[in-house]
Amino acid sequence: MTDDNSTAEMICGDAPDEHQQFYQIAQFITGLIIYPIVCIIGIIGNTLALIVLSHKDMKTSTNVYLSALAVSDTIKLINDFFYFVMLVLQSNKMDGNKMVISNFYPYAHYIFQMSVCVTAWLTVSVAVERYIAVCYPTKAKEMCTIAKARIVSTVVFLSMILLTVPSALKYEAVLKYDRLLNTSCYTIEPSTLGKNDAFMEPYTWVQSSLRSIIPLIVLIFLNARIINALRQQRVKGKKLSSRNRITLMLIAIIIFFVVCIMPDAIMSLFFGFGYIDESNYVKGIREITDSLLAINSAFNFVLYCSMSKVFRTTFEKIFRIKCPSIQCNQSKRLISNGGTGNATQGNAESEALNQVANNNKETFL
What we know:
CATH class of the largest domain: Mainly Alpha
CATH architecture of the largest domain: Up-down Bundle
Largest sheet: 2 strands, antiparallel
Number of strands: 2
């Protein structure tokens, strides 16, 4: 007669293996330390960026994409913050916490996949617009309009929301009995759809390609073309034009995104999108690659502030922050010259200011 417990599988506890400690350390560092810090800073930064980019002085096609990007990044960071909350609940081991976590996971999994896909293709949209502006400047005014940017952003959101719907249906919460521990608990398991390999395997490859692999290839190609075009246009001894300075800032955003998403793309090629149903070793690596995606979602506001003078100026204008005295004195001098004193000089300076403003509107800053 055999003992049923000898062949029973542990369900309500963690079955130890050689990589369990690695996974627990990775989860602790990313989920309980990195995520709350990055998410709080990123949500505040993206909210401020949305306020500034929505200002009437910042109405350009590029800013439409950057505003949509701030929305998708904020959605992802809010979802990531809930992951931190789930880990805190899990560590308390209170009755009902496991049920909440298990029921929440399928929705969190969907939001994560959707927001990363949206962010990837909005970043590609920014790169395409910069490519047109730099390599085909005569067509830029016709092709890179605010209306078209809004349409593209909306299409990206809607298409990625629909594409990732199976992710919401891949897992489900199941109440199971653990014979070894003689208790019942909720677990996260693949749903009927998730167990359908005939659908999930090709779908996973398609989603993997659209989430990271194809955007990565497109961004590397476009960035190389844009950088090469800028080098050819650069005249020695002359400062970069306003348009090219903005292009450099957007290149920095794209490069940072490429660096952060590349580990995820590599993982997607070899391991698919699994997390709950993967080994502790794979889950530990996933914790690290997913934290890089969270850092990417929180980083753009820092780039705007450090590389964009017009973004800083508009930020100061909205939040009533006083500009440095030298800049203020220059502004006052220009305004006074426009109305009094030498009329020719005042008109020339006013005209120069208008020209700068027009250039700024065309090039995001």
